[in-house]
């Protein structure tokens, strides 16, 4: 049998060096390599030269296999057809100048892909007919007639995979159709990551782009809300942190707390579980210093992460805390600037007696949550709240302020901003009896506290 592959001092019909250049094989250092139809082992020898840890070649010609073993004794060669592919997985599989010999070319590609490692590459070097139809076209060659795919036919065969046309291969004497090199990989589901701050238009982009393309969208805000409501099963430490800090207007802060506490990977797992094994878009704020952690976690879970970044259009939104604080400062300034009007329309403010009610007390995973309403002698929500929990005294000025129109109507207040929700970590165990009595006081300063507020309703225990 005349030589096919070309070696120094032993030229063959194949331009082996030029073909090696065109193949653009990935780095083989530490990789496993399989050459299907290896001939005399030229490419197996290169794989070993490039640092592959395992090199296997198969060919149905006993003469070629004997010569390959003699040239490259540190590689494995087997005389067999591709009906029996050596078991993988292999990091790189090469099928060069041979696909057209297969009775079922699409089946051979599927068989090789089944032995390819998850991150591996199948390198195809094949002839592609330039007709515009989608079919296998019989081409008369010097020695026989073989079927070659058109580009549309090749596209159809490779639909399940991720692939790239690397470029033309080295043409050889007698070639009837142009040769091309194709790299084929297992297709991964794509995770489109939109992690910019609030006000950047993440949700609008998802509606206009991904929802129209029928790509699932995972809303970070919705997931955080469902965790806080215990509608999603999550690790206890993640659930406790979200519940302790959750507020619909402070979700960005909650995510920041999750990331800082080292629980971001657990939250990413929740997002991926919501997405399922499919392409999806993530609409969720993540602090920029943690973006790479999300990308790495998504990639490690078998997705191909695509991180999207863009500049915000228009004015930047101030932080929610700043908005609430500024609104309260404005409201207070109205009392200083001039007379206000009470609910009955009078130009004079009716005199008020400081009042308040604690409506609910709950312990959740070591966090004490107290909610109710209060106002001072000026009809304003106190700036400070003092919690007396058994032997502990806790003063807080940072708490959630809520609108309570029912309280406004009942007492004739000029506004409805008199509700509060306080969340604090407490010592003494995870149940209310361990804490002793709970009392709440309030005032504009710590020196003029009023109370304790009346306790109404019932106490709730949560484990």
Give me the count of strands. 21
The percent of residues in helical segments reads: 25-40%
As laid out across the biggest beta sheet, the strand order is 3-2-1-4-5-9-8
Gross morphology: elongated
Number of domains: 3
Q: Mean pLDDT across all residues, rounded?
A: 88
CATH top level label of the largest domain:
Alpha Beta
**CATH superfamily label of the largest domain:** Vaccinia Virus protein VP39
Q: How is the biggest beta sheet arranged? A: 7 strands, mixed
In the CATH hierarchy, the architecture of the largest domain is 3-Layer(aba) Sandwich
Describe this structure in words.
By secondary structure, the protein is α/β, with parallel strands linked by helices. The chain folds into 3 domains: 16-186, 3-Layer(aba) Sandwich (Rossmann fold); 190-308; 348-462, Immunoglobulin-like, CATH 2.60.40. It has helices spanning 16-23, 42-49, 62-71, 105-114, 151-157, 202-211, 220-228, 236-245, 251-260, 264-275, 291-300, 320-337, 405-411; strands spanning 32-36, 54-59, 76-79, 90-96, 116-127, 136-140, 145-149, 161-168, 179-186, 190-194, 216-219, 280-283, 304-308, 355-364, 367-375, 384-389, 392-396, 400-403, 417-425, 438-443, 454-462. A 7-stranded mixed sheet has the order 3-2-1-4-5-9-8. Strands 18-19-15-14-21 form a 5-stranded mixed sheet. Strand 16 and strand 17 form a beta hairpin. The model is unreliable at 340-350 and 457-463 (pLDDT under 50).
